[in-house]
Amino acid sequence: MGGYLIYLAIIIIIPIWAQMKVKSTYTKYSKIPTTAGMSGAEIARRILDANGLSNVAVKETPGALSDHYNPMTKTVNLSSTNFHHHSVAGAAVAAHEVGHAIQDKEGYAALRFRHALVPVANISSKMAWVFIMIGIIVTSMSNFLLIGIFLMAAGVLFQIVTLPVEFNASSRAMDQIVSLGLISNTEERDARKVLNAAAMTYVAAAAVAVLELVRLILIFSNISRND
């Protein structure tokens, strides 16, 4: 019981820590203006045009840290703060989302694979726990647990594939804002801190997903031995 409580604490604490880290880092650097004095929208447009992506629109989207690239509509969507303000954090986030647009243009393999996994991950995440709970509660139906594990594995794969996609987008972002002179040398270090903090949320999500999958595999193995 004690071991399970420790495990439960870990899978709760890791995501909370990651979210607190990204929020505190973003808040800090969202108050520091860039010397270029360009808004996130302007930076995104500048990078897009420099990479032959004039067909990709930059739009404002509601919410905080709701920034994302939509490959279906070919739009870089920036939260209001990042869209209008000219902060180091906004520059980093805007460049990161454009990084995804560049990945899309170049047919980045990991991004394509993640897109292909989206419908599978959406369905499996909804169905997995139904089978898992039946398999755990009714031990004579342990095959349901195995089905749930396979469904959960699809979601875990999605989380793992997301890591190289996000890290690559951040790398592209830094290359672009530096090569185009959109930030100064000192701001480069600060922008990297914002992107690294954001990346930790994906690492935390993947780590928790893997831990939970391993725990369920061990439960299934224990049930199978006792049958």
TrEMBL record:
The chain crosses the membrane at residues 6-22, 116-138, 144-165, 199-220. Keywords: Membrane, Transmembrane, Transmembrane helix. Pfam families: Zn_peptidase_2 (PF04298). It comes from the Bacteria. PANTHER family: MEMBRANE PROTEASE YUGP-RELATED (PTHR36434). This is Zinc metallopeptidase. It comes from Lederbergia citrea. The lineage of its organism: Bacteria, Bacillati, Bacillota, Bacilli, Bacillales.
